Amino acid sequence: MTFDWVTFGFQLVNILVLLAILRRFLFRPVVAVIARRQAETEATLAAAGTARAEAEAEARRARAEAEATAAARHDLLDKARAEAEAARATLLDQARAEAAKIVAEGAAAREREAGAARAEALGRARDLASVIAARAFEAQPPGLSGYVARLTAALDALSPEERSALLGGGHPRLAAPAPLPPADLDAARAAFARFGVTPGTETDPALIAGLEFRSDTGAVRNSLAHDLDRIAEALRDDRAA
Amino acid sequence: MIDTPLSAAPAFALGPVTVTWPVVATWGVMAVLALASILATRRLSDRPGKAQAVLELLVATLDGEIRATIPGDPARFRALIGTLLLFILAANWSSIIPRVEPPTAHLETDAALALVVFVTGIVWGIRALGLRGWLATFAKPSWVMIPLNLVEQVTRHFSLMVRLFGNVMSGVFVVGIILSLAGLLVPIPLMALDLLTGAIQAYIFATLALVFIGSAVNEADAPRKEDRHE
């Protein structure tokens, strides 16, 4: 076995040359591309971090804006609600006032109409009473003799059976609104003498005026009160018809 | 093919200088590695292809190994350790080419490799500790250890050389003997085993070189660590 120093020298140089070659053409380019990619990755990560931070800031800003918008909406709604409540209250007050005014006006109108109606009814009643009274007074005879004549005529107008039943009843009497003076009583009794009866007397202020024959079986009405009743009854029958 | 692996056969002469076959084979390995490197790194991009991915994996693995052994920037030793690994691997595997004997099967090549590691360790030791500090490391833990440390400094690199030489040379030797005795196809399993042995030996040489260089550099880091602890 020999050791070739020339070969050793060649190999030493060869190794150093190979070291330089591989350093220049293999390791340096590969390390450079790795470093470049790492730098790009870090830059991308940094950019992503920045973008993320910006996105988070944007999201926070958007949230704040949304909250502000919600608060403003809430305030607007509250304000609108308050305004609506106020307007509603105002409208209700106005409506109540108007309704009260209408009711008052209606009541006043009704009161006026009722007053007018009452006045009209009173007037008509007054007119009617005037008419009734006028007609009743027109129908009254002048003086007691006239009432006696009308009373006897009424008795004459009765059928004999009715007349005898009336005259034959107990307690025949002449009713007058005031005690008859003796002269008038005598005149009246004289007129009744042809019917065979001498009536007594009776005072009835409700007759107002007139002279009526009454017995226990009936009566012959002949007074102002009776006439008034008849006229009023006739008027009621007319209104009913 | 040479008659004995223990001597380098001359290939040609350049005047008074005789160029042996291991040197020629080394040139071939260098040419292949250089050409492959140039081709592989010609179109590096940020989106790596398969070849680029393999290269980046190689560099990342190298950096990881270096960083695990020597704290600090792995770029200081990346080219040296990577060159040793790739060259020894390529040289060992050159045996699969007919009539080519691996350069590492000759002592001169392994000695040159060991010398590079030896000198690198000294240079980085002095660089890290200074000349006095580096010399002082031979007196640790006691001055009594100076002779032993000096001998160790030589013998561990010598063992580095002999280990590679013995493993590769023996493989070539055995294959040559069996080929001469048995026939063409019989040594194939042994050649395959040689490929495995060659890869392992390349890894072992590169790792031990890293450990030897790192032992010098880490001597410098140790006091700093103690300072930090204090």
Automatic annotation (TrEMBL), chain A:
Annotated localization: Cell membrane; Endomembrane system
Keyword Transmembrane on entry: yes
CC annotations in GO: endomembrane system; plasma membrane; proton-transporting ATP synthase complex
GO molecular function: proton-transporting ATP synthase activity, rotational mechanism; proton-transporting ATPase activity, rotational mechanism
Sequence intervals crossing the membrane: 6-27
Coiled-coil intervals, chain numbering: 45-97
UniProt-listed PANTHER family: ATP SYNTHASE SUBUNIT B', CHLOROPLASTIC
UniProt-recorded name of the protein: ATP synthase subunit b
TrEMBL record, chain B:
Membrane topology qualifier: Multi-pass membrane protein
GO biological process, one term: proton motive force-driven plasma membrane ATP synthesis
Molecular function GO terms recorded: proton-transporting ATP synthase activity, rotational mechanism
Superkingdom of the source species: Bacteria
TM helices/strands, residue ranges: 20-40, 77-96, 111-130, 164-188, 200-218
One Pfam family this sequence matches: ATP-synt_A
One GO term describing the cellular component: plasma membrane
Keyword annotations of the record: ATP synthesis, Cell membrane, CF(0), Hydrogen ion transport, Ion transport, Membrane, Transmembrane, Transmembrane helix, Transport
UniProt-annotated location(s): Cell membrane; Membrane
Function in brief: Key component of the proton channel; it plays a direct role in the translocation of protons across the membrane.
Alphabetized HAMAP family for the sequence: ATP_synth_a_bact
Similarity section: Belongs to the ATPase A chain family.
Full protein name: ATP synthase subunit a
